[in-house]
Amino acid sequence: MLAVLGGAALAGLVRPVATPLRWSAVAILLLLAGQLAVGALRRHRGPVGSARAERALATPGRAFAGLLTLTLLNPMTIVYFVALVIGRQASGGWTPAGQAAFVAGAFVASASWQLLVAAGGSVLGRLLTSARGRLVTALLASALIVLLALRMIW
């Protein structure tokens, strides 16, 4: 609410200089877009550096292990499963086979989701962090900045 009231009050003060401010913003956006694109092209055409350092989650196996660890340490996951177990015991309890089935089902469901996220993230990460992926991403970002600058003009 304060932002709306303050913005309305400031709009009256800024109105006389809005056009020069808009053109200044357009110029700055175009400069940033140009620097981003030129820098990306220079890095892409420049000498290839040494092999990139192995990151913590760079391989699907490491990503899976990292996500599994985060899931196991997540307090909400622990609370959720404790609530399920306590609730089930209060309603009549489980047989040992039912307990084993619950644990196996929870593990398979969680592991399959973690595997999907880890593998997908690893593939997407390799694609986006390749030399071509970084170049395409930077050029798309530059184009988006130019579009935003042109939008400000219209």
Structure description:
The protein has 154 residues and is mainly alpha-helical. The chain has one domain. The protein is built from 6 helices and no strands. It has helices spanning 2-14, 18-45, 60-73, 75-90, 96-129, 131-153. Helix 2 (18-45) packs antiparallel against helix 6 (131-153). The two termini are 29 Å apart. Mean pLDDT is 80; it is low at 49-54.
Give a short summary of the structure.
This protein is 83% helix and 0% strand. With 154 residues, it is mostly helical. 4% of the residues are buried.
Residue-averaged pLDDT: 80
Main sheet specs: none
Strand residue percentage: under 5%
Give the number of DSSP strands.
Answer: 0
- Summing up helix and strand content along with how strands pair, one would put the structural category as mainly alpha
How would you describe the shape? elongated
Q: How many domains in all?
A: 1
Number of alpha- plus pi-helical segments? 6
In the predicted model, the low-confidence regions spanning at least 5 consecutive residues are: 49-54
How far apart the termini lie comes to 29 Å
